[in-house]
Amino acid sequence: MGVMHAGHLDPAGWERLLAVRNDVRRFVLVIGPASASERAELLQAGFGEAVPDTVDPSEFEARACRLAELTRWLPRHRRLGDLELDLLAREAYGQGKSLNLNPREFALIWRLADTPGEPVSKQDLIQDVWRMGFVPETNSIAVHMSRLRRKLGFVGMAGIIATASAGGYCLRSTAEDEARTTFVPNGGPYSHPQQAVA
């Protein structure tokens, strides 16, 4: 969450505020606009909050805390290069084509997308996707990962999931990809969506 002081919103002030990326604005509290119409315009432009300089400290704290909670909400979409994940539809798209994932496959790729570019251990996958506290003596992860990779291969994305040298798996991405998410407007606090999978 960020706080910006806008002061008087002349054209230069508006230009400075509107230079903030659209996907970041929802996490910014703007202080300063005295008129209700200016604050309303800021909210319509996508800023998370807008308050006058004269705001009561307890109100400021409450609004800042509410805005800070937004950073813990689950994203509706995650996009990594040509891979797009839609949490509400529980569907994945590779280069615009549906992958038709089963719930466990979607949970696996969503979990890998939590930390793109970083390996996720088999223990973490078992705990977060299967909700088990131990790694069973089966090859269930390998079987599901093989099916997931095959479906990704059908849309030209065969190499997006790498096997980590220490065990586990890694969703390959770039730093630019990691920044692109859109959030569920009425979402709740952060938790792994896999926990809803039976």
Outline the structure in words:
The protein has 198 residues and is of the alpha+beta class. The chain folds into two domains: 2-70, no CATH class; 75-196, Arc Repressor Mutant, subunit A (Orthogonal Bundle). The protein is built from eight helices and ten strands. The protein has helices spanning 11-18, 22-25, 36-44, 57-70, 103-114, 122-130, 140-154, 175-178; strands spanning 2-5, 28-32, 49-52, 75-80, 83-86, 91-94, 97-98, 161-163, 169-171, 181-183. A hairpin with a 2-residue loop joins strand 6 and strand 7. Helix 5 crosses helix 6 and helix 5 packs across helix 7. It is elongated. It starts with a strand and ends in a 15-residue tail after the last strand.
Task: Tag the structure with descriptive keywords.
198 residues, alpha+beta, Arc Repressor Mutant, subunit A, five-stranded antiparallel beta sheet, three-stranded parallel beta sheet, 38% helix, disordered C terminus
